[in-house]
Amino acid sequence: MLEVLNHPLITHKLTQMRRKETGTKDFRENLDEIAELMAYEVCRDLPVEPVDIETPVAPCTGYQLSKEVVIVPILRAGIGLLDGIRRLVPTAKVGFIGLYRDEKTLQPHEYFAKFPKDLDKAVVMIVDPMLATGGSALAAIHSVKERGAKNIKLVCLVGVPEGVRAVQKEYPDVDIYLAALDDHLNENGYIVPGLGDAGDRIFGTK
Questions:
Q1: pLDDT digits 0-9 by tens, 6-44
Q2: Is 200 one of the catalytic residues?
Q3: DSSP per-residue string spanning the chain
Q4: Is 22 a catalytic site residue?
Q5: Has 11 been annotated as catalytic?
Q6: What is the pTM of this model?
């Protein structure tokens, strides 16, 4: 399932991020706010279970989340989405996966991975601002599946059809959420129109 979240506030904030003159502070703050807005939609189908409680007036039956949520940012840019999602799901646990791209083969390789236990019982959200070729997303999905994850959501800011197709072909059971579906990849593998290198713009490294 692919869902592009065409929300006016998301679109407005993403436009500010796309501007080449937007500085690190504003870029990071807008990303954080978009992550929180996206989390509301991404969490819409989280499973719940009934629970008996007492209000100040009377007993009643309420509902609470029945599965843990685990957020897995792909280092380093995925960290930019973490806090916004955790504000809505403060009980979420966090795993991390670090990937680097081989300069010759262009294939991603895992250099770091740390996850909470019992991924098989959790809703796992893999987060990364960009879904370009899909290589990093595929490697991250493979990594969490190897550790038992079954219910996986891929949450990205901007994607392109090439990346979406790659994930859907390899992992049709993974739901994909985007703030925007852009046009294509250029010859250098950058999303067009995109917003440049998200990691560099988040952390001011260029």
A1: 899 999 999 999 999 999 999 999 999 999 999 999 999
A2: yes
A3: -EEE---HHHHHHHHHHH-TT--HHHHHHHHHHHHHHHHHHHGGG--EEEEEEE-SS-EEEEEEE-S-EEEEEEETGGGGGHHHHHHH-TT-EE-EEEEEE-TTT--EEEEEEE--S-GGGSEEEEEEEEESSSHHHHHHHHHHHHTT--EEEEEEEEE-HHHHHHHHHH-TTSEEEEEEE-SEE-TTS-EES--S-HHHHHHT--
A4: no
A5: no
A6: 0.93
